């Protein structure tokens, strides 16, 4: 029996190796939709992916746990995600590597501007809003902020509750909590309204600490290395744009995140772009993975083990791939 032309083409496509079919589709990039991951947004908005000849399917996710599931299920090929999920994957047997850094800074502990908390020691016995237990931000809060910096027992000395980050400022304003550990732009929105004050800016305490990274499963590294190199070149262009064109970048960020003007205590309006500019005091961007970055990620791993979130330690060298020249990695 003779096959029609279209049936023949369809049958031949079934013989095409799966990895070859994958290589022809857009690179599926997942990103946690946070201001710290602005390079992903900028690269798309300014056409840097197109300049590199890279077709992308950019997908936003609300938080780390959701994007972790997407990576594990093969729904996305590469992720802009916090460093903690990558070592958590390794501990559970999912093979993935960090191939570049995205940002430094972002987190701060704030309290009511007119409240009794002005130092970390004032947190004892107070109600504190944090994120999901075991998440990267929770590890940073418990391991560094509370245990190490404040000398407090996170399970006994504070009343720590899990609150979605978008609800934290409201909880602080209404007195449901006395303090909150959150990230940008929520920190700046509270500060500029005069409602909150920064008790601890983590980036001041730990200058340049890394947070978001670009991570890819080993399968993507093996089958789509060329596309990952294009991604990293676009990523570097986006970071350069953020640093050299801050006003335009701030407008793009403010528009994408639908930021609205806030009213200061004196009644003046603070523009969305001014909120982003304020956030830049606590956040910055870099693609380079330096020795200090490695040491900090190893420190986070130690916190996770000590807190019982990991049952074994992970060597940071095992989750970083230094072979991508465009990633700017420095062993």
Structure, explained:
The protein has 331 residues and is α/β, with parallel strands linked by helices. The chain has two domains: 5-104 and 211-263 and 285-327, D-Maltodextrin-Binding Protein, domain 2 (3-Layer(aba) Sandwich); 107-205, Periplasmic binding protein-like II (D-Maltodextrin-Binding Protein, domain 2), CATH 3.40.190. The chain is 44% helix and 19% strand. The chain has 15 helices and 14 strands. It has helices at 5-15, 18-24, 38-45, 48-51, 64-72, 83-91, 136-149, 165-173, 186-193, 202-205, 218-223, 225-244, 246-256, 272-279, 291-306, and strands at 27-32, 56-61, 78-82, 96-101, 103-105, 107-112, 127-130, 159-162, 179-183, 196-201, 212-217, 262-263, 269-270, 283-285. The strands form four sheets. Strands 2-1-3-11-4 form a five-stranded mixed sheet, sandwiched between helices. Strands 8-7-9-6-10 form a five-stranded mixed sheet, with helices on both faces. Helix 12 packs across helix 13 (246-256). The longest helix is centred in the C-terminal third of the chain and has 20 residues, at 225-244. The protein is globular. The protein starts with a helix and ends in a 25-residue tail after the last helix.
User: In order across it, which strands form the biggest sheet?
Assistant: 2-1-3-11-4
Low-confidence stretches: 1-16
CATH topology (fold) name of the largest domain: D-Maltodextrin-Binding Protein, domain 2
H-E order: HHEHHEHEHEEEEHEHEHEHEHHHEEHEH
- In the CATH hierarchy, the architecture of the largest domain is 3-Layer(aba) Sandwich
How would you classify the helix and strand content by structural class? alpha/beta
| Straight-line distance between termini | 61 Å
CATH class of the largest domain: Alpha Beta
The amount of helix comes to 40-55%
* CATH homologous superfamily designation of the largest domain: Periplasmic binding protein-like II
Largest sheet: 5 strands, mixed
Let me know the average pLDDT: 90
How many extended strands?
Answer: 14
Count of the separate structural domains: 2
Strand content: 15-25%
- Kindly provide the radius of gyration, computed on alpha-carbon positions and rounded to a whole number of angstroms: 22 Å
Shape: globular
* Total DSSP helices: 15
């Amino acid at each position: 029996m003779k096959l029609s032309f279209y049936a023949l083409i369809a049958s031949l496509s079934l013989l095409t190796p799966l990895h070859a079919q994958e290589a022809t589709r857009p690179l599926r990039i997942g990103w946690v939709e946070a201001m710290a991951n602005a390079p992903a947004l900028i690269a798309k908005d300014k056409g840097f992916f197109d300049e590199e000849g890279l077709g992308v399917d950019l997908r936003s996710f609300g938080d780390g746990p959701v994007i972790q599931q997407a990576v594990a299920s093969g729904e996305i090929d590469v992720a802009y995600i916090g460093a903690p999920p990558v070592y958590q994957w390794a501990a559970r047997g999912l093979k993935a590597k960090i191939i570049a850094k995205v940002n430094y800074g972002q987190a701060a502990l704030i309290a009511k501007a007119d409240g009794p908390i002005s130092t970390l020691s004032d947190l004892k016995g107070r109600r504190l809003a944090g994120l999901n237990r075991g998440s990267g931000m929770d590890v940073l809060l418990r391991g560094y902020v509370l245990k190490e910096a404040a000398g407090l027992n996170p399970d006994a000395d504070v009343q720590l509750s899990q609150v979605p980050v978008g609800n934290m400022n409201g909880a602080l304003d209404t007195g449901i909590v006395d303090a909150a550990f959150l990230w940008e732009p929520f920190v700046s929105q509270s500060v500029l309204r005069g409602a909150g004050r920064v008790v601890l800016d983590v980036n001041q305490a730990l200058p340049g600490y890394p947070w978001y990274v670009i991570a890819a499963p080993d399968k993507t590294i093996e089958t789509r290395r060329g596309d990952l190199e294009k991604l990293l070149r676009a990523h570097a262009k986006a970071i350069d744009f953020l640093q050299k064109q801050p006003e335009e970048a701030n407008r793009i960020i403010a528009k994408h995140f639908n930021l609205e003007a806030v009213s200061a205590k004196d009644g003046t309006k603070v523009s969305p772009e001014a909120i982003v500019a304020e956030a830049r005091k606590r956040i910055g961007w870099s693609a380079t993975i330096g020795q200090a970055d490695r040491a900090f990620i190893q420190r986070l791993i130690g916190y996770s083990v000590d807190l019982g979130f990991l049952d074994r330690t992970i060597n940071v060298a095992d989750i970083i791939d230094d072979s991508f020249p465009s990633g700017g990695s420095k062993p």
